[in-house]
């Protein structure tokens, strides 16, 4: 049996290795368009490679996927992060879990993972062809019950395979191959990005971080999405896990709105607004002679409290005993529902994630085989699946690659 793997990324390599282990007699070839296989793995996690996440309950795990959560539940019951950790351990790669649940190699070096996958592929007898850019894939029926996939390379060479796994990530060529073989492509748009905020005073606060905030996106008066978590102020706007999660869940909504929306930030999501007002009044009664600009009643960075003073138009010499009801309400708003205008998207350099791809209802997730094209399989980000940051996108690639490999190699 001849098996062609189109794409030398995490899904492609894991699919190839899985297929080779399931059927040692299969002739497996990985066709990678570039000179550098597994480049995304090499660059991920700031060069450390966030292999997966320590979420070992499939029903909880799927909640980290804005698209594909329903379809991934079954696959995760077959191959989940615990299996990923076990597989790498068997290969001699030790992994560690950080406080936030992200899992990395103990070496803190992504080349550890790349070398492991390359060695496992070579030991399994898999042929790896680099700089092998595919021009087109066609399926030719050789008999009533048998077909062959003809893969034409840019340089003119022809490869023929009995079965093909496409694992080209978010490559537009990969989408074109899938479409030519009968698949619908959900238009791809960016996911996992930071927010651009055109606010000069915010840029001056670059580097300030908050452990837990609640972010709410609005389109005019309509609430669109809410997310919560750590946030970081940058020189272009806002970043951090809360922002990235919001961008992932709102990827298509924000794309449709040209990345413009109203944002509200609650810096104390566990404290109701009326309780914030109460705390301000209590502080006023206890510290009436103190200047407001120098006395922050909340656990906020001093530099950010100064920004609140500017936004609420609090005079430098105003003391707490003379604060008006309107001024107190303005401070409360800046603490519980601070308004910002999102003017565009930034870039999250550690991730390259796309929302969109092969329509999920056209793939059998028990096998990862195409429904309209027998013998064709998919793995990884070419599918309309994407996760939030934290190792979830790699896990979907390992899982779909593993299942695809097991099934593509069956006689």
Task: Report a brief summary of the structure.
The protein is an alpha+beta fold and 411 residues long. It has 14 helices and 21 strands. Helices cover 34% and strands 26% of the residues.
How would you describe what is shown here?
The protein is an alpha+beta fold and 411 residues long. It has 2 domains: 2-190 and 350-408, FAD/NAD(P)-binding domain (3-Layer(bba) Sandwich); 193-347, no CATH class. Helix content is 34%, strand content 26%. The chain has 14 helices and 21 strands. α1 (10-22) packs parallel to α6. The mean pLDDT is 96.
CATH topology heading of the largest domain: FAD/NAD(P)-binding domain
Biggest sheet details: 6 strands, antiparallel, barrel
Number of separate helices: 14
State the domain count.
2
For the largest beta sheet, what order do the strands appear in spatially? 12-15-14-13-16-17
C-alpha-based Rg, rounded: 26 Å
Low-confidence stretches: none
The first-level CATH class of the largest domain is given as Alpha Beta
Helical content class: 25-40%
The H-level CATH homologous superfamily of the largest domain, spelled out, is FAD/NAD(P)-binding domain
Gross morphology: elongated
Look at the helices and sheets and give the structural class.
Answer: alpha+beta
* CATH architecture label name of the largest domain: 3-Layer(bba) Sandwich
Q: Tell me the distance between the termini.
A: 8 Å
Q: Which whole number gives the mean pLDDT?
A: 96
Fraction of residues in β-strands: 25-35%
Please count the beta strands (DSSP E, at least 2 residues each): 21
């Amino acid at each position: 049996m001849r098996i062609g793997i189109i794409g030398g990324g995490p899904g492609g390599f894991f699919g190839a290795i899985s297929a080779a282990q399931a059927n040692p007699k299969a002739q497996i070839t990985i066709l990678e368009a570039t000179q550098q296989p597994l480049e995304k793995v090499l660059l991920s996690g700031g060069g450390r490679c966030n292999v997966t996440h320590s979420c070992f309950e499939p029903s909880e795990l799927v909640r980290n996927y804005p698209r594909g959560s329903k379809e991934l539940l079954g696959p995760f019951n077959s191959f989940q992060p615990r299996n990923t950790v076990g597989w790498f351990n068997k290969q001699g790669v030790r992994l560690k879990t950080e406080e936030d649940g992200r899992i990395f190699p103990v070496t803190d070096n992504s080349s550890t993972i790349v070398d492991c996958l390359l060695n496992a592929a070579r030991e399994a007898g898999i042929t790896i062809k680099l700089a092998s850019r595919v021009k087109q894939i066609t399926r030719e029926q050789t008999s009533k019950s048998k077909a062959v996939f003809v893969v034409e390379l840019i340089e003119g060479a022809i490869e023929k395979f009995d079965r093909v796994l496409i694992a080209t990530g978010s490559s537009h060529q990969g989408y074109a191959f899938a479409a030519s073989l009968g698949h619908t492509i959900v238009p791809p748009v960016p996911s996992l990005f930071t927010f651009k905020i055109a606010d000069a005073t915010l840029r001056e606060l670059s580097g300030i971080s908050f452990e837990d905030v609640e972010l709410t996106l609005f389109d005019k008066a309509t609430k669109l999405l809410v997310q919560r978590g750590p946030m970081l102020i940058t020189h272009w706007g806002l970043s951090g896990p809360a922002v990235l999660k919001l961008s992932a869940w709102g990827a298509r909504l924000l794309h449709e709105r040209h990345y413009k929306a109203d944002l509200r930030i609650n810096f104390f999501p566990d404290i109701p607004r009326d309780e914030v007002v109460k705390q301000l009044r209590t502080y006023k009664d206890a510290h009436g002679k103190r200047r407001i600009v120098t006395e922050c009643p909340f656990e906020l960075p001093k530099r950010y409290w100064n920004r609140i003073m500017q936004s609420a138009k609090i005079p430098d010499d105003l003391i707490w005993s003379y604060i008006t009801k309107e001024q107190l309400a303005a401070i409360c708003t800046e603490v519980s529902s601070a308004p910002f205008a999102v003017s565009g998207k930034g870039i999250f350099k550690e991730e390259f994630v796309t929302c969109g791809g092969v329509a999920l209802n056209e793939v059998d997730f028990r096998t990862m085989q195409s429904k309209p094209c027998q013998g064709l399989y998919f793995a990884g980000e070419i599918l309309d699946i994407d996760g939030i940051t934290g190792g979830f996108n790699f896990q979907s690639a390992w899982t779909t690659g593993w299942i695809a490999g097991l099934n593509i190699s069956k006689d």
